[in-house]
# Entry
Amino acid sequence: MINRIKRLGSIGLITIGLIVTGCSLAQGPAPISQAALASEINVFRSPTCGCCGLWIEHMRDAGFEVNDQITEDMAAIKEQYGVPENLKSCHTTVVDGYIVEGHIPAEDVAQLLTEKPDIAGIAVPGMPIGSPGMESGNYVEPYTVFSFEKDGLIATFAEHS
# Structure
């Protein structure tokens, strides 16, 4: 009888642990800090780019205030803000003196704004499938968010898969 009670007690503890773990996993990504959300992001995009609009929705859903700036000359914007040729994507964002190029997750932008590293910005080159604004079902193409400096130094900022 005592062994049976111990076994039931163990099962109960395991069940409670699974419930707690499941609840914490179901909450999704960590909330974005109010300090990061206090900054208005200025997104420059082409009027015909649908994925840029979806990325803007992703950022708004995360709590960012977005200033959507439509332009016909994205090349001039990228040149003005010094986006490295090998890191270019479809839209360019400016926030708190940083350049945010492409389909970067809101959590990475929040990390940038919270940590305030001494870099020019972060970028996801191209348009990886599964990145914010480029969703395609459950498929996510592994991609890297790079940091870049004005002198051309590039490093890994975050990896996603």
Notes: Residues 2-30 have pLDDT under 50 and may be disordered. The first strand starts at residue 40 and ends at 45. The chain is about 35% helix and 20% strand.
